[in-house]
Specification:
elongated; 20 helices; 3 domains; 3-stranded mixed beta sheet; BTB domain-containing protein; mainly alpha; 3 strands; Potassium Channel Kv1.1, Chain A; about 5% strand; ARM-like
Length: about 375
């Protein structure tokens, strides 16, 4: 903690500290990590918190679940964040932010949303076009021409409107009383094209409309635009906005900002109340990241297994040797569910053919040192 907080001036000292911290990171594994986890369970509360703080800064992302979920490290950091001492709050805030930064690098929960999955997009030329239009919206006294087939494919809200028991089902003109024309036009442009540029001056109103009509892709675009404007002065309002419209991505951005900017926010009179509100969200945020990480690993394993099964026998063998040491322990049972990996085990472990056995060992030890790079190349080829 003293090394992290030190304000060093001379460059050689800075380099020495950086190398020391790097070496400490490399040591946090195996027996050292297990011993620290044991102390984090049985030592007094002060020692437990110090260990949790250190591990938040030094542990690798793949150990986060073991430390902070399985062994209660996250709760220790949340206790610091909720404590009455300013220094303890700061330590907890910085540790949680460091954890989140590491986790997001391997599981980007809240980065800019990708292009949506294609559905039924009529195209730009049909936005507010009377050609083949079978429904008209009245917005601020003006007519907006639309097409039911496009709206039905866009969200559950429009499906309920046109395919349910509502009066709009057979109506030719539908009044929209609570949305401005420019906001409605932009929302419809997204529905017709699958993409739209969201400016900050309209993002708040567009977020409200997207939430009302259950357009999750448009919501993410709005949340991303709004998140770029989070500041010390408006973070409280932004957080309340995220709660009002169930904007989880924006809420996560607010939480990360609150943790990162402790020095500038802790003096605000509303800060203690805000911390109490975000603690459950922080807990849920890290649990969500862990679920996404595990799901992505499982998805990668399934993709590899499915792809490798289609390869020639000789290629199956070589690829299985690359993949086997990389998969995590909880995914190893997948290896036994595929004929391509059973080929590896039968050849490597049980064959009586000396030449094949020798070749298998040679391939294994040749690949073992650079297996991650080879796997990356293999995935790119897929």
């Amino acid at each position: 903690q003293k090394l992290l907080e030190g304000d060093f001036i001379v460059q050689p000292t800075k380099d020495c500290v950086a190398k020391t911290l790097k070496r400490l990171e490399e040591k946090i594994q195996g027996r050292v990590l297990n011993h620290l986890l044991y102390l984090m369970r049985v030592a007094d509360k002060v020692v437990q918190r110090r260990i949790a703080l250190a591990l938040a800064h030094l542990c690798s992302p793949e150990h986060q679940r073991k430390i902070f979920i399985d062994n209660n490290g996250l709760e220790l950091l949340l206790e610091l964040l909720e404590s009455s001492g300013i220094k303890q709050q700061e330590d907890g805030s910085m540790a949680l932010y460091k954890m989140a930064s590491k986790a997001v690098t391997i599981s980007p929960v809240d980065q800019a949303p990708p292009s949506p999955t294609p559905q039924v997009y009529l195209g730009e030329q049909y936005v507010n076009n009377s050609t083949l239009s079978d429904v008209t919206f009245l917005v601020e006294g003006k007519r907006f021409y639309a097409h039911r087939i496009c709206l039905l494919a866009s969200s559950d809200a429009f499906r309920a409107m046109f395919d349910g028991g509502y009066r709009e089902k057979d109506a030719k003109d539908i009044e929209i009383p609570n949305i401005q024309w420019n906001v409605f036009e932009l929302m419809m442009r997204y529905i017709y094209t699958g993409s739209v540029n969201v400016n900050l001056d309209i993002a708040h109103d567009l977020l409200k409309a997207a939430d009302q009509y259950l357009l999750e892709g448009l919501k993410r675009l709005c949340e991303y635009a709004i998140a770029q404007d989070i500041s010390v002065d408006n973070v409280m309002l932004m957080y309340e906005l995220s709660e009002a419209y169930n904007a989880m991505s924006l809420r996560h951005s607010c939480i990360l900002f609150i943790l990162e900017q402790f020095d500038r926010l802790s003096s605000k009179p509303w800060y203690p109340r805000l911390v109490q509100r975000i603690v459950p969200e922080i807990r849920e945020y890290f649990e969500k990241i862990e679920v996404l990480n595990r799901a992505s690993h499982q998805y990668l394993a399934i993709v590899l297994l499915t792809f490798v099964m289609q390869l020639p026998r000789s290629v199956k063998f070589k690829v299985s040797v690359i993949v086997t040491p990389i998969l995590t322990f909880d995914l190893s049972p997948l290896l036994f569910c595929s004929s391509c990996f059973s080929l590896y085990y039968s050849t490597f472990l049980f064959t009586v053919n000396t030449r094949k056995h020798s070749d298998a060992i040679g391939v294994l030890f040749t690949i073992i040192d650079n297996r991650e790079a080879q796997l990356c190349q293999f995935i790119v080829q897929i």
